[in-house]
Amino acid sequence: MSDQNTPYLKNTWYVAALSTELDKDLLSRVLLDTKIVFYRKEDGTPVALLDRCPHRFAPLSMGKQCGNDVVCPYHGLAFNSEGNCTSNPHGNKRIPTKAKVPSFPLMEKHGFIWIWMGDEVADENQLPDYTTLDTGHDNAIAYTYMKWPCHYELIIDNVMDLSHVDHLHGEIITTRGQLSPQIPKLEENAGQLAASWEWKQTPPMLIFNDFLPEPGKEASHRVTVTWAKPANIQLSIGCSQGNQPITFESEESVSQYDLHVCTPESENSTHYFFVTRRNHHVEDAEYNQIKIQNMHAAFELEDGPILNAVEEAMETPDFLSLDPVLISSDAAPVRVRRTLKALIEEEHKTKLTLAS
Ligand code: FES
Ligand SMILES: [Fe+2]
After folding, report:
1. Could you read off the pLDDT of 13-34 as tens digits, one per residue?
2. Rounded to an integer, what distance in angstroms lies between the CA atom of residue 181 and that of residue 35?
3. How far does residue 82's CA lie from ligand 1's centre (Å)?
4. Which domain holds residue 37?
């Protein structure tokens, strides 16, 4: 398990899985260096337990679910959703007092299973409001997940500095070089940091072009990325013609509302969850598949390989310790790094104070 020296914020919500990943089978996943088994109770409530039997430490995920309990594959001890042993098939069948597995608070929201891995009481109010994901046509929302072998903060940096789109990405999301000359507008509010870019381009971004009133003609564009601790980035992007407002709610603009969430598996591996909801072409479920394929192609062929090469060249996860050259587009990601570092240090300090 991770300890207080591991560099993760603990008293916060991370995405553990897509809701759709938890079905009939036990799911084993390492989060923050901790191996966890997930399943659903008979009423559908999700459960997370440490994936290690307290007897001889067999992974519970190799066992089976029996009603609302999970049964260890090795000698058959059973544990309930709170991690308490409910059955010992051996000897006098007495349940040893130490037979308990740590359990973790979960919350199911916006199509994700969120997990709280810190010692403090889980606080549902800490999750930002992403309810825009919950309303709209069922076919206008698409989810995906991939595991990527790099430090999670490199993925946060990548999404918080979208100027790389001008240089790294191909035709489908090109801005015709319009982001790099701009200094992104930053806004900080209630611990969240937003960076926005606004520009005009002809033709419009290809992901939106066909849905505009005049395809191929100049359109105004806006993108905003909003970071919230620990590793949630809400990305809103859209465009319009004829000075119409660019908001997800406006029928005059062609927009999408995305959430990128990174959960560290370990120092060099990240669970990358992604959802996109659009306000146009809402009934086409097949178009969802195209959106998700495009996300995978862009990340796996363009962003991901650069992040791996960067990580190898850095030889440390501490980007700022390398005294990097910083340019105007770094303002948001650097501020996020500093904020996250301060939050982690604060959490460690509190823990040490309580322990002394
Ligand atoms: S290791 Fe689990 S019951 Fe023995
Ligand atoms: Fe990218």
Report:
1. 999 999 999 998 999 999 999 9
2. 45
3. 17
4. 19-105
